[in-house]
Structure formats: structure tokens, C-alpha cells
Amino acid sequence: MKSRFDPFGSSKVIRTTSPKFSITQAQLNTLLTLLEEGSRGRTDLDFSSGSTKKILLTGFDPFLLDRNINQSNPSGVAALLLDGQVINYNGVSAEINTVMVPVRYEDFDQGIIESLLAPYYALNNVDMVVTVSMGRTEFDLEHFPGKRRSVTAPDNANIVYGGTQTNPVIPKLNGRPLPGNEFVKFSLPVNYMQQAKGPYKVIDNHEVTTLEKTYKASSYGELKNSIAVNGGGGGYLSNEISYRSIRLRDALNSSIPTGHIHTPRIQQFEPETEAKIVKQIKAMLEQSLVAL
After folding, report:
1. Which domain holds residue 27?
2. Which H helix or E strand runs over 128?
3. Quick check: is 104 in a domain?
4. How many domains does the chain contain in total?
5. pLDDT per position as a tens digit, 198-217
6. Cβ atoms within 10 A of the Cβ of 232, count?
7. How far, rounded to the nearest angstrom, does the alpha carbon of residue 46 sit from its chain's CA centroid?
8. How far apart are CA 235 and CA 71, in angstroms?
9. What whole-number distance in Å separates Cα of residue 119 and Cα of residue 122?
10. Which of 240, 260, 245 is nearest to 117 (CA)?
11. Measured distance CA(235)–CA(170) in Å, rounded
């Protein structure tokens, strides 16, 4: 497993320390960028095991540590523990590489997800892209992510930029409204992933909310003329990372299976529970190798 370290304390030191040499704001910003990308795993996405398949997986930081220092996030734990692992199933092997994603609206608006994933979709040089975040009581595979933000929850910079259930807002991409349809459809091998054994159900979640109603969409065609309020993953950044990754995949005509796993929710750092969650995520990835 590759090493990671917490960028928050280190970035504060860089921002607030006055060095004994002159440094411009541009140089300071470059240092902060290098710290962010290195600590989150973006600079060491190196598939080097020689495995048959390659899986790229993302996890999220814990939410609002400034309000609850004991908070954790199973998706981030999964990203840390699965990074660099090689899994095997029925003679097929796959190497997993991971990236930790910040819970910040500004990073998403500046295209952090698009810049991360565009090279892989353009070249079709990984075999699956899986985004992961903390969700509800069981595992949910989010079938129809929605485009808009519709929650008033702040991000980890304590910025509220989410719209509401009656006025969902379109996110930005490099200063412009994010393009794309109101809903997109995921392409993970759901039937195989649901066979992963563990203490939690693995649900193929079709539920969405439009301006008209909340319901389980049986097909993508049902959503054609709707305005998204909540995708399967809700109206926050966990839904948005799924939407952005799938929208980009489709825009670049990529064939890489892509989709989102919502993990069971925890209340605080719960190592035994999180170990079970990560083990079942790994089992889902193993089962998926049959279809790749």
C-alpha cells in the first residue's frame, strides 16, 4: 500500500509560515498544489504489477473534521487500504490504484474530477472506474446520478453552495455551467457485484428525484425530459463525482465501466465496521472481474 499523509496540517504550515527566503504567491500556490496532489495519490497512479486488469478507485475525505475530530469515512478508508492491492478471481487479476478526493465544491467546479479521469477515458487504459462515498444503511450502486446540487450542507471549507430541493443548481466546470444531460446511467457490472458476500445488502438503486416526483426509474428513457433534483446518490458531492465521471466517459466515447458505490454510514471512527465495509468492497471488485 502506498503511503498517504494528512495534507490539512501541512498546508496550514505552508500558508502561515514566513520562510527565511522570498516566495511569490504563485510559488506558494504551486507548493500547495504539489502537496495536495502528492498526498492524495494523484502523482503515484502507477499500475506496475503486470496484472491482467486495472481498476481506478476514488474515496472521499471525512466530512467536517473541524466539527467532529472523531469523524471517519469508509470510502477514504477503502481508498487507503485497497491502494496498490492486486485482487484475483477465476484466474483474472487486477491491480487497484486509488485517489483521495476533497469534499470541497470549489475543487469540483475547477474540474478536479475531469482532469483526473480524462486521460484514462481518452485512452481507455484502465478497465473500471469506481467512485466511492459514504451513504445510507446498506451498499447502494447508484444507477442514475443527477446533474444538479440540491442540498444546503456545507463542504469541508464550510461553504454552502448546494441549491435546494425546489431550486437545484447546476455546478460549474472551469467557470461555465457543467454541460450534459440531467441524468446519466452507470455501467458497473451490477449483477456480479451483488453476488459479493458480506454483512450488507448490495442494492441496485434506481431511485431519483425530479422536480415532479421521487420514484424508481426503470429505464434511462423515463428520465429524458426531467429536471434532476436528486440522483441516486442524492444532491451532494458524492452524487456529483458519479455524474461528472460518467458524463465525461460518455463525452469521450469511452468503453470503461464506470459507477458509484455508496457505503453503509458510520457515526464516527469505527475500525471493526469499516474493516467489514472495505472487505465487502473488495469482494465486489473481485466479482466484477468476471465481466471485465
Report:
1. 1-39
2. strand 128-134
3. yes
4. 2
5. 999 999 999 999 999 999 99
6. 29
7. 19
8. 21
9. 5
10. 245
11. 11
